[in-house]
Amino acid sequence: MLRNGTRGHDLASLRRLNTTVVLRALHRRSPQTLAELAAGTGLSRPTVESALEELTAHGWAGEAERDEGERAPGRPARRFRFRVEAGRVVGADIGLHKMVLLLADLGGTVLAAHREDIDPDLGGAERLDLLRAGLATFLAAHAVRRDDILARCVGVPGVVDAGGTITSHVIPEWSGVDLARLLADEGPGHTLVENDVNLAVLAERWQGAATLAGDVVCVLTGHRVACSLTIGGRLHRGRRGGAGELGLLPLLGMDTAHEALRWQGARDPGESEVAALARAADDADPRALAAVADFADRISPGIAALALAVDPELVVLTGGATPLGGHLVPLIEDRLRPLTLHVPRIALSTLGGKGVAIGAVRKALDQVESDLLTDSALQESFRTAPGHP
């Protein structure tokens, strides 16, 4: 026979588990009625009501408003929803030439964005200070408290191992540094750091060109060329986080591909080098067409190597060179034919310059969802209640 104290502990654990089950159901689909939640979770109606009371009291659930114009006979059933406004996440992309910041709610809706150019000669310490100051200014400008940020993820140009340590040839001062630890004092939520092209492929799988594909190669093009991949819809990082880093192998030519994009022709005021090159290629300028062909020559062997190793269903081109896509895609397809067994479908990213930051938002959301949908993390959140009304 159980002692009274043990029985009480077991009942408390069961209540916590039931609350977590209800939150999972609401997070998966909102809004839902009490009857729908009971049927979907297998819990009794009183148990669901009790869980909803606790979730509502701590800001994670709320009663949904009826749709305007909705008419139902009799008294309408109450519907409950997961409160996406209960917290915020931040996705950041800081590279050699730019910084992009995105603020999103817990449903993934981007609420605010900021982009600024960075001096490529800026040192590692100064770049870190710029990121810290940029995050603080960004949140203050949108009246967001640090405690409201449940997770932040930063995309960096370098390999990030399982422990969070960076190896970067682009920003050498960051090599050997645990950037997440240095950024942890920016707020109480989780701080994550991930390779930028890994985040780019997560973004393409979430909102971009690869939403229906499982085996995907993402090629980040522009001032540097780097690759990442998903297998079966899951990011493949490799044992130390370096999977897909073919841009580091000089024999393949990706490490010098950016040189082909240097354009000495006319540029409109404020126009980027690549944009001017794309415009000239659209006008059939022979020099521009030759430059695009040179770029295709340099990146195709690396894409072919990944195509032979992974046999992906889709290759997504993202990053700064996507304005050249209309000319670039057929050239790459032509060069892959003699190098591969099967030429995968090639698509251009539609996410623009925000792709890496969007992937960072996705990774931050994954962390929040993992936290909230486990019993112990949910109870910890009850003690802080960031979204308490």
Question: What's the layout of helices and strands?
Answer:
Elements: H1 4-28, E1 32-33, H2 34-41, H3 45-57, E2 61-63, E3 79-82, E4 88-94, E5 98-105, E6 110-117, H4 124-141, E7 149-156, E8 159-160, E9 166-167, H5 179-183, E10 190-195, H6 196-207, E11 216-221, E12 226-231, E13 234-235, H7 273-282, H8 286-310, E14 314-319, H9 325-336, E15 345-348, H10 355-372, H11 375-384
Parallel strand pairs: 4-7, 7-10, 11-14, 14-15
Antiparallel strand pairs: 1-3, 2-3, 4-5, 5-6, 8-9, 11-12, 12-13
Walk me through the structure.
It is a single chain. With 389 residues, the protein is α/β, with parallel strands linked by helices. The protein has 11 helices and 15 strands. The strands form 4 sheets. It has a 5-stranded mixed β-sheet. Strands 13-12-11-14-15 form a 5-stranded mixed β-sheet, with helices on both faces. The longest helix is centred in the first third of the chain and has 25 residues. It is elongated, with a radius of gyration of 24 Å. The two termini are 43 Å apart.
How many strands in all? 15
Please state how the strands of the largest beta sheet are arranged side by side. 6-5-4-7-10
Main structural class? alpha/beta
Percentage of residues in DSSP E strands: 15-25%
Report the major sheet: 5 strands, mixed
Overall mean confidence score, pLDDT: 89
Order of helices and strands: HEHHEEEEEHEEEHEHEEEHHEHEHH
Low-confidence stretches: 1-6
Rg, rounded, reads 24 Å
Give helix % range.
40-55%
